[in-house]
Amino acid sequence: MLSGPPAAPPRRLRLGAVDAVLHAGAGHQSRPVCYLLDFEGTAPEPTALGVRVAERAFRLPALRYRVEAGGRSALLTPPPVADHHVFAVDLPGDKDATQAAESMLSRPLPPAPAPTWDVWLIRRARGSHTLCFRIDHVLLDGTGACRIARDLLEDQPAPAGALPRLHTPRPVRARGMASACKDVALAMRPPRLGPAFSGQATGVARLAHTDVPLRTLRTIGRNLGATINDVHLGALALAVGRLHRQLAGEPHPAVRVSVPLSIRTPERADAPLNDVVSSLLTLPCDAVSPLQALTRVTAQTARLRESGHRDAARLLLAAVPLRLAAAFGARVASVCPVAMDCSNVNVGPALLHQGARATHGAIVTPLIRNQLCHIALTGYDDTARLTVLADDALTGADGLGEHWLAALHDLADYAR
Predict the structure, then answer these.
(1) Would you tell me which of 166, 212, 276, 326 could form a disulfide with 24, CB atoms 3.0–4.6 Å apart?
(2) Is residue 120 within 8 Å of residue 132, measured between CB atoms?
(3) Within a 10 A sphere around the Cβ of 201, how many other Cβ atoms?
(4) Using alpha carbons only, how large is the chain's radius of gyration in Å?
(5) What is the Cα–Cα distance from 89 to 106, expressed in whole angstroms?
(6) How many angstroms separate the CA atoms of 192 and 346, rounded?
(7) How far is CA 301 from CA 173, 205, 259, 312, in A?
(8) What is the pLDDT of residues 232-289, one digit of tens each?
(9) Burial letters 138-174, b for 16+ CB under 10 A, else e
(10) Measured CA distances, 41 to 44, 130, 210, 356 (Å)
(11) With contact defined as beta carbons under 8 Å apart, do 22 and 369 qualify?
């Protein structure tokens, strides 16, 4: 828990390569990463929420910055004022929190000179409510945003060891560096999207989510020699293939996807800027069976782990000039090199706010220009939430969650 006087944060933070890519990819605009927590029962008073945020925000350095206009640094701002960062809105027709999420993705972040973050209380249907912490994605990745949200909102800190383990760096090997360089080369090639993801983005996105017990993915993975993320991606490959066959009557080829990997260490648990790298994987949408889909995914992720790709990519990005990173981000925004981003974050145990337990948690970010789909799997307490954010050009995307769930059931049959 926060204690003692906060250290004086530096006046300027130089952006890293990932930060520069995100800034350029968003058209040099603030694009939020949103952490949403759903609650049942009476919503807290906005005043009480504001008081808590005011008491804690000034101790968190990540909440003292905004990105300068040139996109090279994050500049220290005056201490945040709760009235400029805590808001409430009523969405009485929102029964499942999808409207709340869509609203948070589209609202602008606080304007200059304030730091670019806020907290929203969304009062929904039947007495339910959602709390949402948002911050400019250039300033924090999903893992960091969840840590900061806990610092701001949680009644008491989670017990020692309860939060998911952060990254432990390992020595960089030649195989890992070769893997990281290969990804850079692949990202510069023409996109390999397949027919379902080749449409022109409309700029209008819809959100849907599907919940499943976390133990379902964990059990499948344990019995079939895979990680939770492997199981998720294998089921997603099947879902895309089955949905396309249902809509178009033909199989869908394998597609290239981007999978973010956290490199946030315990020493930087709630520090500003992004501690994340990406890997490019081939999603086997053309697999002929659930087991084949999972096997093909697992083979790829095992090679990444064994080669040390994550730490090699970290070292490679540290050497990339900001100008080159920004140019790459601009290219990503104009010609999206992957069919979709597929993130997976475990945010840890249930969060209590003013005595109420959040029932679900989810991390979402808006689509960048020309991107058709973002898939986010959020592990919260004992539940996994699959969030599908898709442009209207991606036909039938609201059915992906149903097909993903059916694919998990098929994999569970193999795992028995």
Answers:
(1) 326
(2) yes
(3) 18
(4) 21
(5) 14
(6) 29
(7) 17, 30, 10, 15
(8) 999 999 999 999 999 999 999 999 999 999 999 999 999 999 999 999 999 999 999 9
(9) bbbbbbbbbbbbbbbbbeeeeeeeebeebbeeeebee
(10) 9, 10, 21, 8
(11) no
**What local confidence, expressed as pLDDT, does residue 236 receive?**
98
Question: Which runs of E-coded beta strand occur in 26-116?
Answer: 32-39, 65-67, 73-76, 86-90
Residue for token pair 């930087």: 268
Nearest by Cα to 162 from 150, 180, 172, 173: 150
- Element housing 344 (H / E): strand 340-348
Question: Which amino acid, one-letter code, is at 72?
Answer: R
Q: For residue 113, is the peptide bond before it cis, meaning its omega torsion is within 30 degrees of 0? A: yes
Closest CA to 237 of 197, 282, 302: 282
Mean pLDDT on 378-399: 96
Q: What is the mean pLDDT of residues 357-370?
A: 94
Rounded to two decimals, what is the model's pTM?
A: 0.95
Q: At residue 314, what are phi and psi to the nearest 5 degrees?
A: -60, -45
Q: Which two tokens stand for residue 265?
A: 């260490």
Instruction: Indicate if the pLDDT at residue 328 is higher than 80.
Output: no
Asked if residue 364 lies in contact with residue 371, where contact means CB atoms within 8 angstroms, the answer is no
Helices (H), 58-141: 98-106
| Beta bridge mates, 33 | 135
Q: What is the DSSP string of 234-245?
A: HHHHHHHHHHHH
Region 157-161 average pLDDT: 85
Q: Can you tell me the mean pLDDT for 74-99? A: 95
Q: How confident is the model at residue 24 (pLDDT cuts 50, 70, 90)?
A: confident
Read off the DSSP letter of residue 140: B
